[in-house]
Amino acid sequence: MVKHLIIKTFVILGMFGMAYSVQAADPVKIGFSIPKTGMFASAGPSQLNAYLLWQDLVNAKGGLDIGGKGRRKIEFVQYDDKSNPAQAAKIYEKLITNDKVDLVVAPWGTPHHFAVAPVVERHKFPLVGNTAASVALRKVKPGYLWFTSSMMPDNVAKAMTAMLKSRGVKSVAILYNLLPFASENIQFLKPALAKAGIKIHFEAKYPPDIKDMTGMLIKVKAKNPDAVLVHSYPGDSILYMNQAREVGINAKTQYVMVGPAIGFFRGMFKSNLDGIITMGSWAPGMKGTTGSQKFYTAYKKKFKGHEPDYLDTVEVYASVQILEQAIAKVGLNREKIRNAINTMTFKTIYGDVKFNGVQNGSTPSGFTQIQKGKIEVVWPKSRATAPVADKGAWAN
Amino acid sequence: MKNSLKLVLAVVLCVFLAGVAGFADEYILGIGFTIFMYIALAQSWVVLSGLTGYISLGHVVFFGSGAYVFILIWGLVPVWLGVFCSGIVVGLVSLIVGYPVLRVRGPYFVILSFGLAELVKNLVLINEARMYVSMRPVFGAPALYQLYTAMLLLAIIATGLTYWIRRSRFGAGLRSIREDEEAAETIGVPVAKLKLLAFAISGVIPAMVGAIFIMRSGIFQSGDAFTPIVSFTMVTMAIIGGSDDAPGPFLGVVFLVLLQELLWVNWPEVYMIILGILLLGFVLFIPNGIYGWLSEKYFGNKKNVT
Q: Could you give the domains of chain A?
């Protein structure tokens, strides 16, 4: 019995010893919350995958470069926020005060950024945001939070109007989801269209859980506008794609806001997706970006042939590259990191990023289009990988 | 236990909890905030559903409406006055809404209450979209310890209210509705008036809770503020604790929040599954809730619990 106890004690001590020696390598602890359950659970992976890929690639190099004084590996501490902003606030409090992480990276979605803003502010933890876009974000007072997104609705509206004008569009039909980001885009789009002399022939809004939009689409078809602008989320984007084909919406310019840039859309709609314009300003290997082709290849390798979401995953990855480069410059001191983020220009897969106050001041709002099964950047012209093409006839 | 001793214990507990705000770390305060929030919600739910048997699956309608009223007047009036106003406004409105709603009984009421919450959610959503307001951030909210203290106060008031109503003539009337509404009416209980009053009372505190909650979450959005999950959670907590008297929801909330916290931190991947199994277990084996079970086992008085 006593012998057993002694052996057990040694085993336990040995385990502690091992645990200690692992700790001696001393990784950098980085915390975040992620929606694994709830309303945004389906959107979570586009962010989480970017974090995981980043961790892999950085750790393969030996870890984060800490201000030129050696490398330390990345260790993540992550919790499910149940798609609930208040839970995210609680998680960041726990990460900072209880888990004692070294740094934090962003939660998913605009509301969650608002929720964690006061927490990082209070504890002076720099946080490079991603997956958040709203003009309301500009009201966040400059401090410890920055937003990487180039899709601020007022800028998107300007880009959209310019793109439509370049295609000689005189009339549009607008359909939009009632959810915040879509309606905020409409808020800025309508005056921009009016200013450019583009007529709105039809406008309709619909609830987030819409199951059928045939009625609206028949009216759109009757009005025969030059362009159809659908401000939709992935679920209703699928609905539009199916029903627009059934109804026979033949406008040469068709915009479907969020969804077409996600990998599975191309498998789902094949050639019917060709010519659809969507939100995004990135394609692998495009000029002006750093290492975007390498990112694309590594992503497909890690996630077994799946493609990254050209909108969210890319932006998320760029946000952690910004953090990585700030750390490489100044080390782990959070005040120094904050100053570095405020002043440096970062070379990312999204292009060069420099912050102007809290927002990305470098990356322009833009659009991509699916052409022959490939995503091409078509707007703005300075970043374009291909010119805008007409939407052809629907195949069956 | 003697009543005076209970009271002293309760006061000591409250003073201690209020004192904690001064030095506890944020994580602890965050958990405390959640516990008090659900105590206030579950106690309010008991006033209507526990006592009258009108099971409301849409109690979040008060929570969300309170939050909405609060965000509309945010910045125009002092913060705490705003919280108070949101409670009063929602209470008054629910007097009007409750009039037709409470004509419906049993499963129909359950469905109607759920539908009411969804209806208001979508009305707010449409209204916000019409005004092109996509989300309303709350900047400059009071510090966490202030929110914690405010929520503690609401939890105390809600618990006291349930405790008092349960023992009052009003509460006896409400329980008679639960047991047999026709019989109660026959012997002269003013059932319509009592139900309406209970409906309004059980809405006031959730409205104020909603107002404080959005200061914590930092943002108002229709979809979040009216999420059915809040309704389901308060019902679950009240039922697990026992929904016939004030100590029930209290025990249910403390048990569930701490359990969730423990599971969530240690087994983030499977905590929902474990929680689900526990809930099933409770409904099947301890239908009277923790409080009902404790009082039967240790105090020998059989509680009649819905």
A: 26-149+287-360 (3.40.50.2300), 153-283+366-379 (3.40.50.2300)
